[in-house]
Structure formats: structure tokens, C-alpha cells
Amino acid sequence: EDKQTLRLHDEILAYFRACAGKEYIEALHRALLASLQEQCNKGWDTLPHSHSYGWQRLLYHLEQSGLTDVADNLRTDFDWLKAKLAAVGSSELQRSFSPTPSQREARRVSQ
User: Fold this and answer.
1) CA-CA-CA-CA torsion for 65, 67, 73, 78, nearest 10 degrees?
2) Which residue of 19, 47, 77, 85 has the fewest C-beta atoms within 10 A of its own C-beta?
3) Model-level pTM?
């Protein structure tokens, strides 16, 4: 499989995000979501199983675009959970319920 990816150090990524601004970053996430949604016939649970990136990162992009309520609703949508399990397996499904780094930091501060 021919994959072309670019990995950036967290500090460089943070710098790019700061330069771009929150509104622009949210717009990029929304554009990516629109592209993913074009591949869904009726809803997020119809994303093709072959689109592993979409299944693995959908919740992240929803949350980063300000659609946290949609991401939370998917976490309790049986059809979406069943489709994600079939597409990427149980380990990836379990990650859908793991706290994000910012949530982990908030929990650590509160303890």
C-alpha cells in the first residue's frame, strides 16, 4: 500500500495551529468532514469500511470542528458503533471512549 503521510512534532503542529487561528482550523476540520460525508449514503454509519482513516479519526474531526454533540451522539448510536466495530475492530472502537489529551490533563489537575 502506497501511503504518503507527513508527521510533525507536537511543537511544530502547535505553532502552525497558532498561526492559522482557531476559526481557520475549525473550517479545515469542517471541510474534511464534508469530504467524508460525501462518501456516506445516509449517515456516518454508512462510511465505507475501507476508509480506515475516517473511522479512526471521525470523532476527533467532529470535536475539533465544534460538533462535540454530534460526536457524543455517535458514541451512543448502535448502528454507528456496530459499523465502526466491523470496519476497524474492537480496539479502535474502544478508543472512541478514551479521553482526549486535554481531558486527561483536566482530570489530572482536578485530582
Assistant:
1) -40
2) 19
3) 0.80
